[in-house]
Design a protein that fits this description.
Rossmann fold; 17% strand; 329 residues; alpha/beta; 434 Repressor (Amino-terminal Domain); six-stranded mixed sheet
Length: 329
């Protein structure tokens, strides 16, 4: 069996000290560009693989960041995760991904597992039901960045998009177009984004003295199946809505599937969707989207978590993007 290469072998071959090799591999301290290139050339030629476990124990750093998202099947969250990964891996960090499935118990288990793995930071799109655990994690010195949604009572960096103001604007535009019977596919009440989007809808209707008929409000759970269920519920109202506001893109997808399955013209109801549908040009629709930017969320979250790891004493930051409202039809 060939002898396992060590940092001493790399140092001897490169003609430098083991401390210099360590500074190059760990990206710490000053090393001239020529020496850095020389060491990395030897590392590449010898196919040397640093012992990441030993390195992390020695430095008390794991070079690992945990990400907990609520739905890995949703392109919005997967795009966020991809761009967090790109930014953090470029800085030498590896990522562990967990899917909570919008379940507080699964989220709690994921957080426990990530702490067992000694992650240096956690990026979370949370359920709003593990506040004490999150505060304990933060107090333990682990960096915490909340994405997509705030969690009341948790003092952490936040990267998210506006919810209430943009839904207010979108519903106001529906009213400008003459709609008075507006249905709502709401999200889970326990999730702050759902509450904020619903508040924006209700505020727009109140300002115009328009009634929000309880029969036209369907509480979904951010899944396609709940969008299907909304078709059966909302279109059974008398009279049915002429427009529907869906509080996330997966429920919008389910709503259109439900219309097709019921044999109803998909363009018979005007729809406002919080979140885009990439396939919408493939069928007849009257669709307006509140266009989120998961690339911005992911890149900004990556930069924020790296800054927090590097400088734990920095003041907490809240970065909010204002989504645009765009007609697709």
């Amino acid at each position: 069996m060939p002898k396992k290469l060590t940092v001493k072998d790399v140092a001897r071959e490169a003609g430098v000290s083991t401390a210099t090799v360590s500074r190059v591999l760990n990206r710490t301290g000053y090393v001239s560009e020529s020496v850095r290139d020389q060491v990395l050339g030897v590392v590449d030629r010898l196919k040397y693989q640093p012992n990441s476990i030993a390195r992390s124990l020695k430095q008390e750093k794991s070079y690992t960041i945990g990400i907990v998202i609520p739905d890995m099947t949703n392109p919005y969250f997967m795009t966020i995760a991809r761009h967090i990964q790109r930014r953090c891996m470029s800085a030498g960090y590896h990522l562990l991904f967990m899917d909570s499935e919008e379940d507080a118990g699964k989220e709690s288990d994921a957080l426990d597992l990530l702490m067992e793995k000694r992650v240096e930071a956690i990026v979370l799109a949370g359920t709003d039901r593990n506040r004490e655990k999150l505060e304990s994690i933060r107090a333990n010195g682990t960096a915490l960045v909340l994405i997509d949604r705030r969690i009341d009572g948790v003092d952490a960096d936040i990267v998210c998009e506006d919810n209430a103001n943009v839904t207010f604007r979108a519903v106001s535009e529906l009213l400008d177009r003459g709609h008075t019977r507006i249905g709502v596919i709401a999200g889970p009440e326990g999730i702050v984004t759902a509450r904020e989007r619903y508040e924006g809808i209700a505020a727009a209707l109140r300002e115009r003295h328009a009634k929000l008929d309880p029969a036209l409000v369907y509480e979904g759970d951010y899944t396609r199946e709940s969008g299907r269920g909304a078709v059966r519920s909302l279109l059974a109202a008398s009279p049915p809505p002429t427009a529907v506001v869906s509080c996330n893109n997966e429920m919008t997808y389910g709503f259109y599937l439900g219309l097709q399955e019921a044999g109803i013209d998909t363009a018979s109801v005007e729809v406002v969707s919080f979140g885009d549908l990439e396939f919408s040009p493939l069928f007849r629709q009257r669709l307006t989207v509140i266009k989120q930017d998961p690339v911005w969320i992911g890149t900004t979250a990556g930069e924020t978590v790296l800054a927090r790891i590097s400088e734990p004493s920095l003041e907490k930051v809240t970065k909010i993007r204002i989504p645009s409202v765009e007609a697709k039809s």
